[in-house]
Predict the structure.
Amino acid sequence: MAAPELMAPRGGSRRLRVRRSWVRASFVVLFGVAFGLGLWGFWIYRTSPDFAWGTTAWDVVYYSVQLFVLGAEATNEGGDLPWQLQTARFLAPVATGYAVFEAVRSLFADQFVLMRTRRMRGHAIVVGRTPAAGVIAEALAARGALVARTAAGDAESLRNAGMSGAAVLYACEGEDDEPGVNVLTVAVANRADRDPDLPGLRLNAHVSDPELALALQARHLSHPQPGVDFFTLGELVARSLARRDHVLARGAAPHVAVVGHGTFGRALVVAFARLRSVEIASGGEPLTVTLVGPGAQEAARALRARWPAVRAACRLVPVETFADVRAPGAPQRVYVCHDDDGDALRNALRDSDLWRAGEGAVVLRLNRLAGLGGLFGTHDGAILDDLGGRLDVVEPGTLLRKATAPGALVHDDVYDLMAVSAHLTYLRNQRARGVAWQSTPAMVSWADLSEDLRAANRAQVRAIPDRLRQMGCTVAPASDAEHGRIPEPVVDARAVDEHERWMADKLAAGWTYGPERDDVRRLHPDLRPWDDLSEPDREKDRAAIRAIPVILADFGLHVVPLDDDAGFEAADVAVPDPRGVVRGWRMFGRGRAEQPSEG
């Protein structure tokens, strides 16, 4: 079986290549020096009275070649040889030994690579030879990860790529005939033998269909074992692009235009909406997004209906033509987001109304034609005008290489994103109650939040599958941005479980009970049994349960009771008439839940 391809981290790989190049160049010089000294030495030695062999020029060449195979009869008996020949008869065998080593290494190269990769630790595995796999692998290597690439995701290929010691896996095979092929790879990897002393493996499956990816994510979020993420490359790139331009998204009275309303264009609007939500929570104005082109009205309706963040943080203005873009005011940046690279190029390069529509850059996202970006500009090698510096051509690899995800990842997985959503939900709740921005350690943006509070948000969202299972519910893709409200008897029952989880996490982190909170000494007044808590303190845990539908709705999901007979348990006491609870859930319908409190 072919060995996986290894991609060393950027910087480290260059040093490795330089080192090998110098070693090989050194041995080429060694061969030349040994042969030259041999010729020189034999030419001198042939005039000695003790020399009893042929003395023609061809004889001298032949004797010099024999030095490399330890068979030069003229030097076997040693004696008083010229220094040139003495040196050559030792250098030549060394050069021969290196040549043999290189031949053996080339012959058994795959076996050597397999031996290495099977024993590697902490590396990344990328499965597939697709453009998406190439982009992910390059981005991982650029961020400092050692990457093993393999074409297939079967058990043997993954074992050869070092699955037992890997830190992260990205399954990115082509899905033309088998939409679930990357999900199967993740399933195989999840069953693979692992070194028990290593952290859990992060599994990521590329699913090109956003709706299928969302449905798979829903099924995973209903499962008690986290660690798998289903993503589309377009959504990853959209989040990375919005993060790159976060200053614009968080500025005063921001306004952007988005041309193209396919998967990437809509994902970019959602990503900007989530960034703008921080400013909304602190009292800022919505982000104005002008949607340009045929179908803009329908795209605006779909975005508002599906994504709560868009409704809360964006003012969508649909227009039909580029000439109408300035109607709501000049956008600070125009994003050309067609899913087809050809359509994107045509719009960006042909329509002068688009160039003049905004005050800032025209951002052109290219995927398969990303290499064209280097042709625009005034630098050496450029052959195309970049509209006076206003055309900003971006490609997926460049954006993902600048990702801010932790560890050997090029994206934040769904739990990291949900943790941010949980924090934003908390901020909205506190602002509604009159709590001032930056008045407490938690009343800040996610970027400024302490690691302890970030960890608390992550732990809260990772517990959502347990809470859903206890409530007899699951998660499904939502058709709109509305969400149901969990009935209060269920909230009370699950708040007890949430408090016990929170206490366990705090105690494990070294916190203890104290009458007043002290973050330095790790003291907290809520580290006591549920029955000993005051009513306001119990409300914090109830709010975390009420927030579950709100957080899920931010990712296009909603909570669904499994059946009318689903029973809920309330702290060892069954809730009366569980059918009524479920019916009440459905009938109560569309409401806003209160948001959680952090602590």
